[in-house]
Amino acid sequence: MPPASWRRVFVIAAFAAAVAAVVLLNRRVTQSAAAWDPIRLNEVAQASGIDFVHQEATLDPKVANIAAHIAALGACVSVADVNNDNWPDLYFTTSRFGAANALYLNQKDGTFRDVAAQAGVASLNRAGEGVSMGAVWGDYDNDGFEDLLVYKWGYPQLFHNVGNGRFADVTAQSGLSRWMNSNGAVWLDFDRDGLLDLYLTGYFRSDIDFWHLRTTRIMQSSWEFAANGGKNLLFRNLGDGRFEDVTDAMGVGSTRWTLAAAAADFNDDGWPDLYLANDYGPEELLLNRAGKRFELARAGLEDDSKSGMAVAVGDVFNRGRFDVFVTNISERGFLFQGNNLRINLLNELGRFNEIATGAVADAGWAWGAQFGDLNNDGWLDLVVVNGFISADSGRDYWYAMSKVAGAQGNIFEDAKNWPPIGTASLSGYERSRVLLNRSREGPGGGFVDVAEEAGVTDRLDGRGVAMADLWNRGVLDVAVANEKGRALLYRNGAPSGHWVAFKLIGTRSNRSAIGAEVTAEFGGARQRQVVDGGMGFCSQNDRRLHFGLGSSGIGRVTIRWPSGTQQVLDGLAVDRLYEITEPPK
Amino acid sequence: MTAPGNRVWSDPKYLIVFLITLVLVAGEARYSILGGYDRLATTLGVCLATEIVLSWWLRGRVANLASAYITGISLALLIKPQANILWPFALGAFLAIGSKYVLAYRGRHLWNPSNFAIQVVAPLAADSVAILSHQWGNDLRINLVIWAFGLAVASRARVLHVTLTYVACFTVLALLRNAIVGGPLLAELAPITGPMYQLFVFFMVTDPRTTVSTRRGRMVVVAVVAVAESLIRLAGDFQLTLLRPLYVSPPILALAIVGPIAMWWDLFRQARKR
Asked: Cβ contacts (< 8 Å) between B140 and chain A: which residues?
């Protein structure tokens, strides 16, 4: 054994090396790999005629100390072909009384025109009725035209698309008119009767009227396991324009501050399940038991409490399975909740495995997210928008918030106990992420952030993000709704890979084909996608499904309709959009 | 003669071992506070291994492992890294126990081990590590249980005066801060109701190995720690950007600054007396 003095020197050297290792390993976390596959996203909102600017809600002065925090929601974007001209249109919501939502009709020449006022879906933010928080499209009456549901802090509104460019407010007769503080909704046909049902998520309790507060005890009771939020509601479509509240009968009335929901068949039993991203709590997977009831699954989610903001569903590794990405909060030094990339192993292990690391895990205070193959290489990429409150960049609310964040729930449940936010920022001026899926390099390829190289450099407070081939070019473009900011439109530079897209029209299934799944086989892999009735955070993608193929041709395509009909297509050509109508039984 | 069993229960070290095990088990069972057993295995394993190897190599005998056990659990609870990385647990554990052997003065280590590890890892690895982002459900009931056991153990371990002095100073200083910065009073008092403070007042600031020798001295030191913490908090309120790395855990970093200075001064003074 060396002499004592040398042993001590050796220990000191090891100690110093450990300190150095902390610094070096930390640096490695912050570095991202260089992009190898170019994506170019050009911001063209202004040039395209989209000049929409979201305005936040103004609330009762009783919560003025944290109004900027409470009201930092409501910028939504959802995509639908409103007039059946085969060009996707865009709907944006704003949240201030008197401010108008916008419906941008695609002019087919690279521009859009706001027709919300003429259509009757602009002036929805009114005292006594509440303010818009988001919208989802779905043809609830199967008449061939996409209808519009606007969820609000206030009374939700259902608009029937009359088909002549105008919408009729049918809320009163629909049975949906009840006060909610909702930040999410999805259309789904949970009982597979061919009619779209509606799941509305509750965030703040429904007895709270933000303009006439009776109490300031309105906040979450825990940052981790709060269940004192608004109740989620499931409405069954009765087929005659009315909806029936079946929440309790179906067991889906979570009060866990749900910010987002997505519907898909996660366990391959043919019935659409519900996946919830809850703020201040664990995510929830509600498995649909043959349309009779939903059961809260134990799927590895129940103990992992974070601040779920968005749910995006995608087949990340082309396994023919629906994996899940849920956004959360990361803030240097204060909090690393990390986003969740949950790989679906329900059939093998009865659970999801969380595998997010690096750029996927840490996207700042992340909000909306969507999967889509941006470079047509055959693998789903991921766009994440983020940033909570961008105000005075010299003032930061994180420290002040941390005073109450670690405390007992009954302290911060009362908004008046929160330190005043004033003009401070809270995770503001963050840059969005464009995460390129490099799985074609092999199982360890992972995702790399290419936002800067792609040209996504905005520092606005992103909320909703949606993907659609807005100019029918065979590429996915990206629309972003920003809180208290202008909407952005990122036009995709044309990648070189092949593609194929499908527009599905239900006959026995709901006509929007929401819930229909397409599995495309190409290049030795198979990728599965689902037509969504709302996905991400207060967003909805185009219901046309887009598959990038890389240099491959397209093999067999299998469509599973919500009715249960399975349809197989062979011999399809690449670089084409196919309109597929559900075959008769 | 005291029976071995009684000795175990009367030794403050083992009382604290019992208390931190209670915190771990209750918190994990109810709120999954660990975020993965691999984290606990890493910190405990590295702490124990480091203690065994270094004590044997440098001192010729294997040290009592109670301190390493307490440190391992404390770090598993306090370190909250980005994604699923484990290296902050391993390196933090090594640095914590290593500091006992490297950063010593007159045969005594100057920092509470887990306190030292936190003060190194949190600022140097701010892109990878946060401190105690789990809040144990913000549940009053579980916190009351831990406070009750904690106070009983602190009393038995004869460090209750340290805990109570700190709590009293924190309360008075919270009132003072509130008078300076305004806003709701409860916002200033709120932090002490949370779990980070449980770990702090029962396992760090009372650590008998890193507190000064006299009762009065310990009370003065802990009061100075509370004052330093308040200064950090005021810097946070007044948005002094330079000190931002300290805002994430003001009490822990205040102790990391004040504690070793006090220990060094106490040891120096004792040596001069001799």
From this structure: 408-410
Where residue A427 falls (left for φ over 0; alpha for ψ -120 to 50; beta otherwise) is left
DSSP secondary structure, B71-90, as one string: HHHHHHHHEEESTT--HHHH
Cα torsion through A420, B201, B70, B121, rounded to 10: 40
**B104 DSSP 8-state letter:** E
* Nearby residues of B90 by Cβ (< 8 Å), 6 or more positions away: B42, B43, B46
The band of B2, judged by pLDDT with boundaries at 50, 70 and 90, is very low
Write the secondary structure of A349-403 as one string of H (helix), E (strand) and C (coil). HCEEEECCCHHHHCCCEEEEEEEECCCCCCCCEEEEEECCECCEEEEECHHHHHH
Pairing of strands A517-522, A498-505: unpaired
Sign of CA dihedral A508, A511, A517, A523: positive
Query: Both tokens of residue B201?
Result: 């007042």
Determine the Cα–Cα distance for residues A538 and A43; give it in Å rounded to an integer.
21
What integer pLDDT is reported at residue B1 of this predicted model?
A: 43
Closest CA to A151 of A120, A127, A187, A119: A187
Query: In angstroms, rounded to a whole number, what is the distance separating the alpha carbons of residues B163 and B198?
Result: 10
- Name the residue in chain B with its Cα closest to that of A222: B138
- For testing the chain A interface, which of B52, B82, B239, B247 should be mutated: the one with the most A CBs within 10 Å? B82
d(CA B218, CA B43): 29
Q: Which residue of B has its CA nearest to A24?
A: B125
Contacts of A304 in chain B (CB under 8 A): 32, 35
Spatial separation of the C-alpha atoms in residues A388 and A72, rounded to whole Å: 7
**Nearest residue to A359 (alpha-carbon basis) of A95, A118, A33, A132:** A33
> Beta A576-581 vs A498-505: how paired, if at all?
parallel
Which residues of chain B lie closer than 8 angstroms to A305, CB-CB?
31-32
Q: In which region does residue B56 sit, left (phi positive, over 0), alpha (psi from -120 to 50) or beta (all else)?
A: alpha
Taking chain A (585 residues) in consecutive chunks of 10 residues, what is each chunk's mean pLDDT? Answer: 82 95 81 62 98 98 98 98 98 98 97 98 98 98 98 98 97 97 98 98 98 98 93 98 98 98 98 98 97 95 88 97 97 89 96 92 96 96 98 94 90 97 97 93 81 95 98 97 98 91 98 98 96 98 97 96 98 97 92
Do the Cβ atoms of B139 and A409 come within 8 Å?
yes
Highest mean predicted confidence (pLDDT) among A14-28, A252-266, B9-23, B234-248: A252-266
Model ipTM value:
0.90
Report the distance separating Cα A103 and Cα A341, nearest Å. Answer: 33
Nearest to B260 by CA among B106, B109, B122, B98: B109
Residue of A30, A328, A336 to mutate when probing chain B, most B C-beta within 10 A: A336
Instruction: Verify whether the Cβ–Cβ distance B239 to A394 is below 8 Å.
Output: yes
Secondary structure of B231-254 in HEC code, one letter for each residue: HHHHHHHCCCHHHHHHHCCHHHHH
- Mutation for A interface: B186, B196, B242, most A CBs within 10 A: B186
Which chain A residues are closer than 8 Å to B239 by Cβ?
Answer: 394-396
Tell me what the mean pLDDT of segment B86-107 comes to.
95
Closest CA to B117 of B46, B24, B165, B221: B46
Rg (CA), chain A: 23
Q: What is the pTM of this model?
A: 0.94
**Of B18, B31, B124, B112, which is closest to residue B77 (Cα–Cα)?**
B31
Residues in A closer than 8 angstroms to B180, CB to CB, are none
Per-residue burial over A27-47, b = 16 or more CB atoms within 10 Å of its CB, e = otherwise? eebeebeebebebbbebbbee
In this complex, do B135 and A420 lie within 8 Å of one another by their Cβ atoms?
A: no
Picking from B84, B94, B196, the nearest residue to A357 by CB comes out as B84
